[in-house]
Design brief:
The protein is an alpha/beta fold and 478 residues long. The protein contains 15 helices and 16 strands. Bound molecules: zinc ion (ZN) (2 copies). The site of one zinc ion has 8 residues, from loops.
């Protein structure tokens, strides 16, 4: 289970998940400031400490938000996917976000693996096919789920689609939303009796309780889990008849894999593909996981139900014998000039465009410095530019040639060089997965750099993305 890895490092493998963005739009810098840069910085820092890390990234093609976007734009859905996928990959490259495994749902091997694993779970009786009531639109006939349904969260009353609640991070579906209706045509829901594979999360409560106790969860995640400690856990249909998603075969022919099921299974598939590429069955993939110590999810607060409840339950159902949740690093929303990012109002700074014109090292440092982890923070062009003016000379030349500008009655007080080592240590400790705090790390690093110390530090390399993208699995890196 432990022992020297291929590069001489020791210890079990830590899986770090960079969430797969849905290809219904490009990434904006709010996304980067949340999970995307943080996961890359944490991966680089862990690797530099000699830890065995496996970083998963990818794109998400199968939420029906993608088809809805194409219909709203009257565009060809395949062309739309290709365009957004290209823009997302360009953003990753320009932001220097690396990975060991890229999960691409348009690859045949991936699709076969996901449908195959779900089929095995049904055939071996772990996930039985049960009579279930879903809902369809009485007017247009679509199965109401994800972007196709809109209503109010039963817990906090926030408006939500049938995926999760942005207000409280809980689970939502057409079956539990208050006042649900068809998001496409406004039609009312009509019960639809089906026989579909259902994961009864209550059956996994003991295991989930172990996962919840063993992992490090931020306070806001814990408050969602606190609700689930007493409230019943939902039954989750893993596949059903609809018009978008990976097509099932065998006993599930005619259904499509629900996209959160797909994501949950992709977190089993991705590490197995890296650790044991020949693994082709559920059991072989579970065996590959013998080397994995834990999983860290980087994600937005509103996905708490998925990374802290559903995905660990899917791994347990798949046969992983012990809990592997290690923790989560979460973020709140990032604002742009005081308002929410909005694609429909074109109130956004697209990451691939912004990074084409800007120094990626300064963009990474600023978005980490301003990271919306403890509260919603606000990107302003004025603060970005002020940051660049201040930080660029520190990156370029070590100590400032001239004293910083200060009001006339205050003398310039740069950091005493005797404190530089403590600042650097603070920066590097803040980049550990436990207590990860990129905003603190940037502050401490810049203080050290102002004395001419730290130009060759792990903190500088991890935060700016200097050096090789990925050390662990060069065959998959770019
Ligand atoms: Zn409808
Ligand atoms: Zn809610």
């Amino acid at each position: 289970m432990t022992g020297p890895g291929p590069t001489g490092v020791t210890g079990g493998v830590t899986v770090i998940v960079i969430p797969q963005p849905t290809v219904n739009g490009p990434l904006h810098i709010g996304h980067l400031s949340g999970p995307y840069l943080a996961a890359d910085v944490a991966s680089r820092a862990a690797r530099a400490r000699g830890e065995r890390v496996l970083t998963l990234a990818g794109v998400d093609v199968h939420p029906n938000y993608v088809l809805t976007k194409a219909e709203n734009l009257d565009a060809d859905v395949d062309e739309l996917i290709a365009t957004y996928k290209g823009q997302i990959r360009t953003a990753f490259e320009r932001a220097r976000i690396g990975w060991d495994v890229f999960l691409d749902p348009q690859e045949e091997d991936y699709r076969r693996a996901i449908a195959g694993m779900l089929g095995e779970l049904v055939e071996n009786g772990t996930v039985p096919v049960r009579p279930t009531t879903l809902h369809q639109c009485a007017d247009c006939g679509r199965t109401l789920h994800h972007s196709y349904v809109v209503g109010k969260c039963p817990v906090c009353g926030t408006g939500a689609n049938g995926t999760s609640c942005e207000g409280c991070g809980g689970f939502t579906s057409a079956q539990v939303l208050l006042d649900p209706s068809c998001a496409r045509c406004g039609g009312p829901p009509r019960p639809m009796a089906v026989e579909v594979p259902v994961l009864r999360l209550e059956d996994y409560r003991d295991r989930l309780t172990t996962e919840w106790l063993r992992a490090e969860w931020p306070t806001r995640v814990r408050s969602v889990l606190q609700q689930y400690r007493t409230a019943p856990l939902p039954d989750v249909p893993l596949a059903y008849p609809t018009n978008w998603g990976i097509e099932c075969d065998g006993p599930l022919a005619g259904m499509r894999v629900d996209f959160p099921t797909e994501l949950g299974l992709s977190y089993l598939y991705g590490p197995a593909r890296a650790l044991r590429p020949e693994a082709a069955t559920l059991a072989e993939r579970i065996e590959a996981w013998a080397e994995v110590d834990g999983v860290w999810h980087f994600n937005g607060m509103d996905n708490t139900f998925y990374f802290a409840v559903l995905y660990p339950a899917i791994l347990a159902a798949a046969g992983l014998p012990t809990a592997r949740a290690a923790g989560a690093v979460v973020n709140e929303l990032y604002l742009l000039e005081g308002q929410k990012f909005s694609t429909s109002r074109n109130h956004a700074l697209w990451a691939h465009e912004f990074l084409a014109a800007e120094d990626p090292e300064l963009v990474r440092l600023f978005l980490c410095w301003d990271r919306p982890d403890r509260y919603e923070s606000d990107f302003t062009m004025a603060s970005y530019q002020a940051f660049c003016e201040w930080a660029r000379p520190l990156l370029d030349r070590g100590p400032l040639a001239a004293a910083p500008v200060t009001p006339p009655d205050l003398p310039a007080r740069p950091l005493p060089p005797a404190l530089a080592a403590a600042e650097l240590e603070r920066a590097e400790r803040a980049l550990q997965l436990t207590g990860f705090d990129a905003a603190l790390a940037v502050r401490a690093l810049l203080a050290a750099l102002s004395t001419g110390t730290g130009a060759d530090s792990v903190a500088l390399a991890a935060l700016t993305g200097r050096g090789s993208v990925i050390a662990g699995h060069p065959a998959e890196s770019r």
